[in-house]
Amino acid sequence: MDLLTQGVLGGALALSVANEKESRIAALTGFAAALLADADILISASDDPLLNVEFHRHFTHALIFIPVGALVAALLLWPLLRKRLGFRRIYWYALLGYSTSGLLDACTSYGTHLLWPFSDTRTAWSIIAIIDPIFSLLLVIALILGFKHCKPVPARVGLALAGAYLLLGLWQHQTALQSAIELAAQRGHKVERIIVKPTLANLVLWRSVYQSNGMFYVDAIRIGPGPNRVYPGDYARAFDLERELPKLAGESVLSRDIARFSRLANGYVVSDPGRDNVLIDIRYSMLPTGITPMWGIDLNVTTTSQHAKFEIYRDRPNNARDLFLAMLLGRDLPN
Known about the structure:
Blueprint: H1 3-16, H2 23-36, H3 49-55, H4 66-81, H5 87-106, H6 133-149, H7 153-186, E1 193-198, E2 205-212, E3 215-222, E4 229-237, H8 241-244, H9 253-264, E5 269-271, E6 278-281, E7 295-298, E8 309-312, H10 320-328
Helix pairs in contact: 1-2, 1-5, 1-6, 1-7, 2-4, 2-5, 4-5, 6-7
């Protein structure tokens, strides 16, 4: 999730078990340690744009790396806090804070390498959006109150409410998933694989993407309060290297980058309908019913020895906000 939420969750967990004397140091230590896992964003190479994307939320977020990450955090904080707290206590609070990073990111749809090195699959439970202000606000208020009054109780209450919110997300996810499966059955489609994920900042409107007979189908599903509705969306053919780029050498740098991008997108890859030689991750779009991409790779098929360019896109329809709000509120879509 966003850095603020990562930090306040780690700070709240550390504060929740601290005594009054150590409460503020515990909160600050947990906050700082929770942020450290995202230092993997610094891993990059100027001639290999996908390297940064590959290693974000990678080994630094793995369960097995938690003790190591906490040790690094404690060593960094030790010179600043050694007159206030012993190293063992600093490490304990850093361990609590750092332990939240991978688990929280696994709750999103982007996921993380939680089980590395035993599995290279990204764990993505898709029960909360990458940015969710309600979830974040619960933790921010809890941490501020606990820090101000040097009490663990507000942090405990905030963690309990945040946990309940995640359980609500799990319930909504299962309901949306069932609705998406039923929708596919109504269309006569055999679902080969499917994902449902919450749209930005809410647990009401969900994006469904399923594959059937070589095609991806995208829909928006609204799950109460109020009326449940399905908003049919776009569809696109799944990318197939042999069909679309038959002349591309199997061992070229570009072909390997295509395979890397496909792994990052968990196979949910299509050719961008609006751009030539661009592959996109169909799991993400500006609208829950659309396939206009948020990111993709630009392929220079004339120079297969060079790496593909990773691109971020910000294209969206002029009425995207109105369409999104109408779906979120369960209304008919504006013309």
